[in-house]
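Tutorial handout. Part one gives the primary structure; part two gives the three-dimensional structure as tokens.
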Amino acid sequence: MAADRHVPGGGVPDRSTLAAASSHAVEIKHSRFLAQAAPAASAQAALAFVEAVSAADATHNCWAYRIGDHYRSSDDGEPAGTAGRPILAAIDGQGLDGAVVVVTRWYGGIKLGAGGLIRAYGGAAAECLRRAERVQLIVLAELEVHAGFDDLGHVHAALGALAAEKLEERFDVGGAVLRLRLPADRVDALKTLLRDATRDRVRFGQP
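Part two.
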């Protein structure tokens, strides 16, 4: 695994995405299938990849993408449900997020039938993804911390201890309001640390 990639809070924890583009080619009953996959941070990026790699001389360019709760798929002229959905199922089956896969088919003269198409498209996509290098997605959360002037030292010390990023710091007569971003699974630990360090004088809110 090469690195970690951050996604905003509300993403799906314990999922991964692709570190780079990947491809896999296979021939099934004289039809050639080329699966190509890439990371995609947005629907626009996913559709741009689809357009970029779709082959004009191919019989079908079928595709699917998953970005958080948003997903789309296309059978591109194949019988409904035999191409796009199996590709999406391959993405979901491997726990991937922020990923797009295009499977291009050059028809070889032998019909595969619905079951054969599902296996061909889903299998090509799954093998392409299986071979790809991945990075873990880290879900980030944001929160506000309200602290008095005497407690700011404790707050700043906690930020470093829990890898929290300070996005904004405002001051008023009562102290400071800090807007923070950190891995979602460390939010409770940060709150506990600050409450203990300041004898429960800090307050928390949502940005």
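Part three, for discussion. DSSP finds five helices and eleven strands in the chain. The domain at 139-205 is CATH 3.30.70.240 (Alpha-Beta Plaits).
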